[in-house]
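Bench notes, afternoon.
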Amino acid sequence: MDTNGTRFQLLQGQADWLACEDAGVPGPWQDVAWNDATQSVTLLPLLRTLPPPRAGAPLDPSSRRGAAVDRYGHWYWIGADGASIWLLPRGERVVRQLWSQASAPDTPADAGFHAIDPPAAAPIALAGLVVTRHHYLVAGCASAQGLLIFDLESGARPTLLTMPAGDAFTPFDMAPAQDGGCWVLDRVNRRYWGFDRDFRALAHVPAASPSPVVFAPVDGSEPVRVAMPTPAGYPVAAADPVAIEALPDGSVLVLDAGAPVATVLHYRGGALLGPAQPLSGTAKVVDPVTGELLSTVLEIDAHDIAWQPDTQTLLAVDGFGRQCLAFSATLAPSLVLGLRTDYLPLHQHGGRALVAWRDGAHTSVSYDVVGNAAAGDPAVRWARLQVVARADYARTATLLSPIFDGKERDCVWDALYLDACIPPGATVLIGSAVDNDRALLEGPDVSFSDEPPLVLRRQASEIPYYDAYSGQAAQPDRLGTWELLLQRARGRFLRLRIQFAGNGRTSPQVKALRAYYPRFSYSRRYLPAVYQQDAVSASFLERLLATPKEFFSELEGRIGRAGMLVDARSTDPDNLGWLAGWLGLGFDPLWESINQRLGTLVGNPGPVPDRRRLFIRFAPRLFARRGTADGIRFALHLLLEPGLEALLERFRLATLVTDAALAAELAGLGLPALSPTMDDTAIEALLTQYLLSPRRPSKIRLVERFMTRNGRALVAGDASEGSGCVGTATADAHRFAVLVPETLSADIKTMVSRIVQLEKPAHTDFEVRRYWDYFRVGEARLGVDTMLGEDSRFAPVVLGRDTLNGGRLPFPPSMAGRDRWVLDRDPLGAVPGQMNRGTA
């Protein structure tokens, strides 16, 4: 409602727009579409497909080698010879050979782990490659029936894990598992295998015959035979399984290329979840002769697939390696694929692999490009898959809005506003139909009256301090709020006809529609009735006074909502510095670049929240703690805590709808539960306690400097200070170290130093260090400055390979383990994991 009491009916968001009918035809839209990226309605985008090549054979899945990216962005792949592994370090253009084998060792006769010491008989044929979460590079060994495992942390020689003799195991493709293991697809035997983080097969079946004698009684009686479990893979109901992809829930997708139309099967633990989904779909294309839209069925003979978890999308490379086709995927209750219209052309695809990999907070998909095929692997480069700007749209479409209710008979509908981008070559035309009887506006035979053309407002939106495109980096021309004054809309019920038109290359993008009612008439409210006697003159006067009415209404609205200017949640970004000045805060020029970088840590697809707003909101709580350790930690959390805005919103929503996980976390920290009676002040106070809770894991810590003599800590004023110690205890008593995550960039570390300088006590000094820098003999106190936990910097020591200072001793096996026998616990012949309570 504006200052004149005028309300509006609103269409905004996908749910509202889907309530509109496409040209009055029930069912799904025909010539319009919803764009998730811009949250707007557009003309139907058309899928552009590349024509088949005039010469050349399709790609052979047997030519795929396998590739992967580690956590640092280094690329690894199997060479074209199938017997070497190549490396392209991040940021470099020179390809290196990581491992080669002029010849390789004979396959060991017994199963298990074996060190690889070249040379020997024939090279091992490699197929499939992954890098696990724990930084192991694993390559499938088709000829050796095993896995070749490289520990990338230690850089040691590889280890060959071979399967038991007699087991059919021929790796072809691999995918990393969410738990740190991997999935292996066996194309020859049509099976897939799962391995955990310790490279133990996930599927087990009892052995067909008892294993050899392991132990025998000393009295010579009948020996105990122990039937050890034997690993086995999961069968795949596919004619030709050629690719496997892992999903976050532990299930896998398998590509079957054994039919004219490739299909995808969804498995979990060997169980098929629903029917196979063909990689096909109905798409609309433009007839090159008539220019008409034609519906065609696309059937894809896929060469490889990749899973994009950020958008729940399955990408498939066509058989000739010309382009990727995207399918939106629904996983529950069973897999359903829908063809998307993303245009994803490929440039000289080498056919080695299509790889989805984690790039910071987002997932990228890349493929190999070989500019010089004769040069082979040294010429390989990896290109990111890019969505090319769409150039084909349907030319016309019409939407009919829901029927809007003006709440009173003979309501005069006022104006219409559209938040939209209408580029050159595209138009949006509005028609209206009104009546006091709702039934007369239903059905396809409604008569609409044409309204005047839309005009782009020079100012912002008619709503004070509202910008529909705030935070959007690229704002093209003709983007903003478009308006028109409704001319013939008099009646309680209103229905709009929205006509989209384009030239086939461009399309309007309509984000929101607002229809205002009832009209606040300056001529009826402020002029004598004589001005309304002549209908023509009254209509002209109404339109004449519409401009000053809009000007004054907007001005009065901005005055009435001036409180938004002093609210950190709603004020314009340009006003944040001015508002912070009221509280004595000064924002550093580094804020803008740091804010964008920190926003990428949480993978926010929309505009990055401005962290300065939180600093202003929490400034009173920050000032109350200034000069204390909690004050420094709180300020650093406001700067460095990723997703803090989302966390605050989660706290707010938990006061309305119970959040069991959050309630359990708060209870574990000894904090009160969220309740519906809490207002914003109480929620912010609880969030402050949550961030500063000593029980909450955090990589932001403050550590006091100390000195010792004869095992006793020295403090300022100690009688023995300076005796036998390096330095003085007095100096170190007023020094502390700020420990921050080791991945921070230089400018963020600079900002950390400036914030600590402002928040610390004036008489103290400090240093900023990485979180693990303080773990040094003579500086860290065991149990005080140290914490037990797993970290990627400390890998388990492998007997016969590592030095003691190069890793850590792993934890002993769990006494409650269910997947192994433990000496002095399980009796011979017992079920694995069955506790022997008669032994210690």
